[in-house]
Amino acid sequence: MKQLDPIRKYLYYFAGFLFLGIGIAGYYLPILPGTVFLIISASCFIRSSDRMYKWVTEHKLFGSLVKDYLETGAIPQKIKYIAISCIWIASFISTVSIYLSEYDYFYILLIILISLASIGTWFIASRPTKF
After folding, report:
1. pLDDT digit string (tens) for 99-126?
2. Which long-range contacts (CB under 8 A, 24 or more apart) does 29-38 make?
3. What is the pLDDT of residues 53-74, one digit of tens each?
4. Choosing a second label site near 62 at 20 to 30 A (CA), which of 8, 41, 46, 51?
5. Do residues 86 and 31 lie in contact, with contact meaning Cβ atoms separated by under 8 Å?
6. 8 Å CB contact between 66 and 57
7. What is the DSSP string of 94-129?
């Protein structure tokens, strides 16, 4: 692997901790996807700190999900169902909130919201499934 210059290494290290914090918060806050940010965190740490990369990928709560995704790109079937359900529930709640606030650009926002939810659903569904 090519050696990174020190500034880039520290930026990856800082970003790794930033995404690690967001990822851990995602395990406790509804709607915030924790595992996605932990995968990004591990990707930053692999470029900056072997010790922190091992900590993230070997953690007893989320390590196996992160490591499996980084190695195979696979997502467990149960997690796929949960993630896709959360995307569409949050989209529905957002749509109702925008509609009730009588926002002038409701249909434009609705198209954007449905498009983003569809892209997220497609991405998750297109990943290999781990049974």
Report:
1. 888 878 888 999 999 999 999 999 989 9
2. 31/86, 31/90, 33/83, 33/86, 34/62, 35/62, 35/65, 35/66, 35/69, 35/79, 38/62, 38/65, 38/66
3. 999 999 888 888 888 888 888 8
4. 8
5. yes
6. yes
7. HHHHHHHTT-TTHHHHHHHHHHHHHHHHHHHHHSPE
Tokens matching residue 69: 């995704």
| 3-class state of residue 75 by DSSP | strand
66: Cβ contacts below 8 Å, ≥ 6 apart = 35, 38, 39, 42, 56, 57, 59
Q: Which residues contact 24 (CB under 8 A, 6 or more apart)?
A: 34, 38
Side chain identity at 24, as an amino acid letter?
Answer: I
Tokens of 47: 């470029």
**d(Cα 107, Cα 90) in Å, to the nearest integer?**
17
CA dihedral sign of residues 66, 72, 123, 80: negative
Share of the chain above pLDDT 70, in %: 97
